[in-house]
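pinned: reference chain
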Amino acid sequence: MNKFYGTGVAIVTPFQADGQVDYNRLKDLINYLIDGGVQYLVSLGTTGETVTLNQQEKKKIWAFTAEVVAGRVNLVAGIGGNNTLEVVQQIKEFDTNGYDAILSASPAYNKPTQEGIYQHYKAIAQASPLPIILYNVPSRTGSNVSAETTVRLANDFNNIIGTKEASGNFDQINQIMRDKPKDFLVISGDDPVTLPMMALGAAGVISVVGNALPSQLSEMVHHCLAGDYKSAQKIHSQLIDITRLMFVEGNPAGVKSALKHLGICGDTLRLPLVPVSDATAKKIAQETQNITTVKSPAKY
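pinned: its structure tokens
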């Protein structure tokens, strides 16, 4: 369980100008994040534009990521969907080499009942050779995994080890924190509220902003884990504006704009997502420059 304390980053998928996966830049990004001090990476979560990738691309990205990471940090694969049987099959076929857990978002669009959500995760837990981290993100899925369902799953399945909680509902977060098993991890899934969630006992964050600013975010989370919230607050305040800008025109368009400014990868996305506007890109570049020591970003 200690593998997933601290800073995790849901890594973007860099694309070339023609829309093909840019493996050279993916390697650069992985090394940048590891050098930035993150504890683990999530390959092909929402931020990886996973829904625009076919199964062959996913398999290649997972294998490539594990090869580049080479055990230097812990690694999580994002495998989810709204067809339970298909998700179970993908998990059964998944090459677990190099991976430590699976992050699985609750079903989107179907809007299942709480019993449906429970049965969905029960089927996944029974099929998975790796530990499962739940992912509750109602703003994307159209339904909420309630505190009662989260705690029920945590109690019923030993291999469901935590939840990435992105509801933003602190009444719900409080209830999960109070009622969960002692070793069940609650992980922030929403960058702006990582500090207050950790003050309540969260184990850390699976971050979007960390793609661009891994060292800053890792330092903040490290202070939180050490109970030094005064130091953490200073970094949290420094990141408020850049965090807002990275989400104002959607994810991962904002963070890819920052990564382009930093010279790490381009800002190409796959439709239906598009890059941020020029006005927002300029603001992101300026705020990123204010926070980092980068002098002359590469051009893409």
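why pinned: The first strand starts at residue 6 and ends at 10. The domain at 2-224 is CATH 3.20.20.70 (TIM Barrel).
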